[in-house]
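In pairs, describe these two lines:
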Amino acid sequence: MVEKALFQFCGNTRKYIGQAVFINCIRLLANILFSFMFASVLSYFILNKYIFDLKLSFGLILLSLIVRQVCIRLASQKNSLVIHEVKHNLRKAIYEKVLSMGTLYQEKLTTQEIVHLGVEGVEQLENYFGAYLTQFYYSFISTFILFLVIAPINIWVAVVLLVLAPMIPLFLLLILKIVKGVQKKYWSKYADVGNLFLDSLQGLTTLKVFKADGYRAKELDEMAEGFRKETMKVLSMQLNSIMIIDWIAYGGAAAGVIVALNQFVTGNISDYQLIAIFLLIADFFVPMRTLTALFHIAMTGVTASEKMLEFLNESEDVEYGEEVYEKNSDIVIRDMDYFYQDGTHALKNLNMKFLSGEMTALVGPSGCGKSTLASVIASEYRQPKNSIYYGSKEVFSLAKGEISKNIIRITHDGHIFQGTVRSNLILGNDKATEKEMIEVLEKVSLWEVFSKLDGLDTEVLSQGKNLSGGQAQRLSLARALLHDAQVYIFDEATSNIDVESEEVIIKIIEEISKKKTVIYISHRLQSVVNADNIYVLKKGEIVESGKHDELMKLKGHYESLFSRQEELESYRKRGGLDE
């Protein structure tokens, strides 16, 4: 009933839980004092017997009530510290795991699932750490303390209560497998609904454009109904088990009362002791009853944590070396094969060279493996061993982070974060000066735009929604230029932008290629005619390679693609003239 694997992310949580349990034990001692003093007062008013002085009894009753309230407040504060510590540590662990894996995390979980685990999954553990664990340890300790208090009064009553009280956690232990199974289905449905909702929210514009929002709404309704049914199963199971626990608790209390009355009749305990035992019996079963109420809620968090722990403990199967990336080094690929997670053979027996100070282009029809190859080179996908060399260094001989620091992949949809132009640029280089930022903005022809506004402090919206597509892409490029990487991979970086922005970007790419290693991917073959080398891919294989003129003379796959594009471009222009 205690998931030990979760403690590795606790930090100071164990200390806070221990302190909360200790405070609750002090509260229990105050309750015991209250019970004895109250029994003394009742003995005086009902039986006219003095056990303790009335003033002393009332004073100690008042003191016990004050101590109880202080302990409740202090225990609540400790539980809050537990919750804060666990949430912080778990979210930090998830974040660091994603960072360490890079885009490799997508082999295990989708982005929506990561968000769901990091937000709702962590929230579900609040009750487990903040209430259940404290109550779990306190329940057993309190039972032992009460046994030690009642045993000197009457051993038979103490033994009966000691035997019956642990029946509650034993029952919980027996139904644990059933509970976990039901909670697992519940959490799975819960996560599915959350993931589908997030996916629908992100793609709402697309759903509206294709008038598919009605269909998606129906799909969400059906999934939500499935989740409702699982929720009802969970609630039904909780109510049934709580009913059984109540029978055990009330039955145990009744048994304790009967034994106490029997001992009173036989003269083994006094009327004062009988009253005190009656008051203490409640404390025997209340902690266990509270534990039951928290058990089912806590198990939802534990079920959520199973997938979280599976992800956090996922082996990356990557052993890095300690070598440093060599500047101005070539990239060499030797006999490389790459398979997707489902076993699809995406790249087949590739032998390639990407020389420093040159621009190498990758072309071919959609689905031929260009972007996959780019992602493998940039270490966004898991790389095959003994296949990729950066200079004289095999990929896994390099220190962790060396590739991501020296190779940057620029796509047509580079994310622009909400904030200022400055805050977006500083992501590329946190040591960049204002002068360097302005210079790079001038290079991508954006400074003239921003200088008329608030300069580097110009506000931009998430995904650059207050910029044109071309401006957003050029800002993304400016950030990449500030990073000053050794290798730049431009993956369809000029797609879906205006002609002016395309010309600016292509000009910059050609300038960079004189000093850096540039890999350029584009469907528009007219933009690769000046490349130093062109690799033509088809179904994951290299079918041709060479300069533009050489490939055109071959009259092969490249020439066919290029000629077809020229015909389409010519047709489009003629159509435009006719209009």
Q: What stands out?
A: The two ends are 75 Å apart (CA to CA).
